[in-house]
Specification:
Blueprint: E1 31-33, E2 42-43, E3 45-49, E4 55-56, E5 62-66, H1 75-80, E6 82-86, E7 91-97, E8 101-106, E9 115-121, E10 132-133, E11 135-143, E12 147-152, E13 157-162, E14 165-171, E15 184-187, E16 190-198, E17 215-223, E18 230-233, E19 252-254, H2 256-265, E20 271-275, H3 295-300, E21 307-308, E22 310-311
Parallel strand pairs: 2-10, 4-11, 6-22, 12-20, 18-19
Antiparallel strand pairs: 1-11, 3-5, 5-8, 6-9, 7-8, 7-21, 9-11, 12-13, 13-14, 15-20, 16-17, 17-18
Length: 312
């Protein structure tokens, strides 16, 4: 998962590393070492997400990050050695974001209750750049309830559903015209009870007298993008909704009670879909916004194409 200190920010960049908030970090991959004498320097995995034993949402990809670049000529072989199994057949594919990150996602959302396993059997496998795998890695996780949040920027609402049934519709405010919120579907990266957010960290303002300056620790934070988009409570917008129409710096604001309630409903991998913002969709690698790519676009970044999961 991608975690860290961050801040809401709206910047004009449509890149994952744009001038929104910076929020990045990684969990450790669990490894089952198989000691052998490598044919060259080791090819290692930096992270595999989700972590073993977790229960995640229906939009959660499997995300593998390598410590060193994987050459294009080696990616088909590497993909074939990263076997995805599931308790029910699911069609999906790998997609490369640059030369170090490969995500596997189903063509459509995972079915609730599916058990999933990834076996990264890369011992002895070349990355095409003179490095060879020296470990095998295995992660297992489960898909939980189908929890979704649909945010209407213009309607100032967020509808929360669980297993296709509407649970609640909440009042929200999203980004302002100057700092619009990303559109599109973003799987929850993580959540934290408190996050320190500053305007200076995202290049909005470092001057305390500026109307856009802030340095706040805010509660009930649901993390949506690596660049710093959150659903949370803001002291500067305590009663969001169409009546207040107070824009954020790119985050989605809830009231204190609604933010605490929503925090208790969602988990990593639950999709939050935002519509009605003047901004483009979040880049697919800005956190886990993989479903912002259509299936043809997804396959364009795959070396081996569509596959059906092995039986778990």
């Amino acid at each position: 998962m991608l975690v860290g200190t961050s801040a809401c920010g709206g910047g004009s960049s449509d890149k994952a590393g744009g001038d929104d908030a910076k929020a990045s970090g990684k969990p450790s991959a669990s490894a089952s070492p198989s000691p052998t004498k490598p044919a060259g320097p080791p090819m290692l995995l930096d992270t595999i997400t989700p972590q073993t034993g977790t229960t995640v949402g229906v939009a959660m990809p499997i995300s593998v990050v390598f410590t060193n670049p994987v050459a294009a000529k080696a990616r088909a072989t590497v993909e074939k050695h990263m076997k995805v199994s599931a308790s029910q057949p699911v069609a999906g594919a790998w997609h490369w974001f640059g030369d170090k990150r490969a995500d596997w996602r189903p063509k459509t959302y995972w079915p609730s209750g599916t058990k999933v396993k990834i076996d990264a059997d890369i011992n002895g496998v070349s990355n095409g750049n003179g490095r060879y795998g020296v470990h095998n890695y295995t992660h297992t996780f489960q898909i939980g309830d189908d929890v979704r949040a649909d945010v209407s920027v213009t309607g100032h609402t967020m509808k929360v559903t669980r297993n296709s049934k509407t649970v609640r519709t909440l009042s929200i405010n999203a980004g302002s015209a100057e700092y619009p919120t990303w559109n599109g579907t973003m799987a929850v990266i993580d959540k934290q009870e408190k996050v320190h957010m500053t305007s200076c960290s995202v290049g909005i303002s470092c001057e305390k007298g500026s109307p856009n300056y802030y340095d706040l620790t805010l509660p009930w934070d649901i993390h949506l993008t690596q660049s710093g988009t959150y659903v949370h409570y803001s002291t500067g917008d305590p009663n969001p909704g169409s009546g207040s129409a107070r824009g954020s710096h790119g985050c989605v604001h809830l009231s204190m009670s609604d933010a605490k309630w929503f925090y208790g409903q969602v988990k990593q991998g639950d999709p939050v879909t935002i519509t009605g913002s003047p901004r483009a969709k979040a880049p697919a690698d800005n956190g886990y916004a993989d479903f912002n790519l259509g299936w043809d676009q997804w396959l364009a970044g795959s070396a081996s194409g569509t596959e059906t999961t092995a039986t778990l």
